[in-house]
Amino acid sequence: MGDDAGLSGIFNEIRPRLYRLLVARTGDNHLADDLLQDLWLRLQTAQVGPVANPSAYLHRMAMNLATDHIRSRAQRAVREENWSNAETDISDGIARDGTPDAERALIARDELSRALNAIAEMPPRAAQIFRLHRLEGESHTAIADRLGISRSAVEKSMAVAVKHLFLRLGTEADEDAHRLGIDRRKWREGSQS
Amino acid sequence: MKLSQHQKAAIQWHVQLMADDADWAAFTLWLEADPAHQRAYDAVAAADRVIDNQLAVLRARLPANDVDDQSAPAPKWRAARPALAAGLLALLGVAVTLWRPDAQAPQSFATRNAPREIALADGARIILDRNSALLLNRGKINAVTLTKGAAFFIAPPDPAPSFDVRVGAYQLRDIGTQFTLGQAGDKIQLQVADGAVRLTPPGSRALQVQRGQGLEISARTAQSRLYKVRPSTIGRWRTGQLSYEETPVTVVISDIARSSGLTVEVDPRIADQRFTGVLTIGDGTRLVSDFSDLTGFVADRQGQIVHLRPRN
């Protein structure tokens, strides 16, 4: 429990800050409370290895819980909209099982192929830095040292990488793009010339 | 490409928050300043969260050892751009997938008392069950002919098929998937643990079988039965068990026959019944008696042939 107890202690210390962050993120006091409670429970039960910066770790964990909540809420809304189609359908020789499990698998596969596309479309340097940071878990500082570039150069490449992810995977990106009159396909073709 | 000011800011913040010295108080203030900031950030965070959710698969697909040499898959058009850094692009041309012609002689695999795993390119795998046999032509699409018993197929989660499997006159293509395929007597058994499989019967249109579905087809009568199957129970013979939940008895019998090396016939009166339970394979000799103890069916054995019938 050594590290867990330490994390719990720091959690209690910065709890008001995490709460304010979650309220700002979700715009919902009750939800912020629930997410904090969830975070605390996870700290009690999860196996957490040594954490270099507990405060940053807890803030990120809180943000991830909020993101997961928002994502699953969005997927639920889509599913309810398609409720009438969610029955097993064996018409025209194709059997489809509309259970959430099957749907989740489909969503996951779709996300995976879009993520792979997003990474393939990144400029080489951005793809390299993205992979070192997000897949291999190296810090911005470590990557800067390794590649002999400045930290702000690393962050610039990461911003390019995140932009590609956002364009391929952002849940509201389509909506926003539509609102802003941006045709994403046109942009992709444009970027290749 | 134009992003909105809020979207650009959200991306900047998201990148800065990845660092250990991130200024979370300033980020909180930014969120509080305008509800539109919150919405923009939600979309960015949700997109990046996909990477966490897919981390294991992405790591497998984009192994660390090629990060430095930049041989990661990249669109061809990029090669036309001027090099951004010396040497980065030098190896781009090397990312050519190895392609083996299908014309070579197939490899033959057969098992007796234990399953055997066959590793293929791109993380695809086949686990051949006990008392089973197949022919394999490795390639970008692995051509497999299942000649006896059953096998568990694992394809990387990719829309492109990894397997082209023949069993009798039937053909199967995977759609980024895990599935077991078996044959016993005139029955072909397919169970899909993940993704989907397209099965083409001879002279007929393709059927698509999804995760959580089992399909039993008689090669003799072409009669088929589609049933639900819990994905975690599929291919459990790999761990020495047979696990069922409301599974048609004929499906169970196919597994028992293969695992025990016996021919098992089933009385039509019990063929449509369902079985729930777990059987331990062991050396296969106790399977028939265990199954008959659990179900109350009577097993009449004559040499290598067992006939299962209802009591009375």
Structure characterization notes:
- The complex is a heterodimer of chains A (193) and B (312).
- Chain A has 193 residues and is mostly helical.
- Chain A folds into 2 domains: 1-83, Rna Polymerase Sigma Factor, Chain: A; 101-193, Winged helix-like DNA-binding domain superfamily/Winged helix DNA-binding domain (Arc Repressor Mutant, subunit A).
- Chain A is built from 9 helices and no strands.
- Chain A has helices at residues 2-26, 29-45, 54-81, 100-121, 124-135, 140-147, 151-169, 173-179, 184-192.
- In chain A, helix 1 (2-26) packs antiparallel against helix 2.
- The radius of gyration of chain A is 20 Å and the shape is globular.
- Chain B is an alpha+beta fold and 312 residues long.
- Chain B has 2 domains: 5-53, no CATH class; 107-309, Jelly Rolls (Sandwich), CATH 2.60.120.
- Chain B has helices at residues 5-17, 24-33, 35-53, 55-61, 249-260, 287-295; strands at 107-110, 116-119, 125-128, 133-137, 142-154, 163-167, 170-184, 187-200, 207-210, 213-218, 224-228, 241-248, 263-266, 274-280, 298-302, 305-309.
- In chain B, strands 1, 2, 3, 4, 5, 6, 7, 8, 9, 10 and 11 form an 11-stranded mixed sheet that branches.
- In chain B, helix 2 packs across helix 3 (35-53).
- The longest helix of chain B is centred in the first third of the chain and has 19 residues, at 35-53.
- At the A-B interface, helix 1, helix 3, helix 4, helix 5 and helix 7 of A face helix 1, helix 2, helix 3, helix 4 and strand 9 of B.
Work out the strand percent of chain A: under 5%
Number of strands of chain B: 16
Largest interface: A-B, 77 and 79 residues
Number of domains of chain A: 2
Q: Mind telling me the CATH class of the largest domain in chain B?
A: Mainly Beta
Quaternary structure annotation:
heterodimer
Please state the CA-atom Rg of chain A, rounded to the nearest Å.
20 Å
- Structural class assignment of chain A: mainly alpha
* CATH overall fold name of the largest domain in chain B: Jelly Rolls
Count of beta strands of chain A? 0
Provide the number of structural domains of chain B. Answer: 2
Supply the helix-strand structural class of chain B.
Answer: alpha+beta
Number of helices of chain B: 6
CATH architecture of the largest domain in chain A: Orthogonal Bundle
Would you identify the regions of chain A where 5 or more consecutive residues have pLDDT less than 50? 83-99, 172-193
Class of the largest domain in chain A in CATH? Mainly Alpha
- The ordered H/E elements of chain A are HHHHHHHHH
